[in-house]
Model the fold of this input.
Amino acid sequence: MSNDPFWKVKSLKEMSREEWESLCDGCGKCCLVQLEDEDGDRLFTSVSCKLYDGATGRCKDYSNRSVRVPDCVVLSPENVGQLEWMPNTCAYRLIHEGQDLPEWHPLVTGDPQSTFKAGMSVRGLVISELQVDEDSLEAFVTDWPGESGDR
Done:
C-alpha cells in the first residue's frame, strides 16, 4: 500500500465523498461573479454569490445551493474538466490536469486556515451580489492571487 496521499493515487472518480469534499480549499473564487471580455477571457470580480459568507469563506446553504442559486454549478468528476472558468488554483482543476496541490492547501499543511493565511482566499475581501447593481459589475473587476494570466 502506498504512503502517498489519496489525491496523488486516486482519480477524482475514485475518491470517496469525504475525500472529494476535502479537496475544496475554501478559497471562494468559484463563488465570485465572473465577466467575459471581448476576447472571451474570464474576468474575476470582487462580487460574490449571494450565498457566499464573506466572513467564514463558505457557502451559507451548501446542501441547497443549486436550488437557491439555479446557475450554481455543482462540481463532479464528470464536469470539472469542462469548466474552464474554474480558478487556476482550484484543487479539483489541478488534480484533473494531473498537477499536485499547492503548498498552502489545507490537505498539505494540515491547517484548515492555510488558504486564508497564504492570501489565496477571497474571504473578507468581497461584497455580495445583493449589494451591487448588475450594470456596475465592471467596476468590481479585480485580479486575485494565482489567477493572473491564461493557463
User: Anything to note?
Assistant: Residues 16-140 form one domain. The CA atoms of residues 19 and 123 lie 23 Å apart. Helices lie at 6-9, 17-22, 65-68, 91-96, 106-109, 114-117.
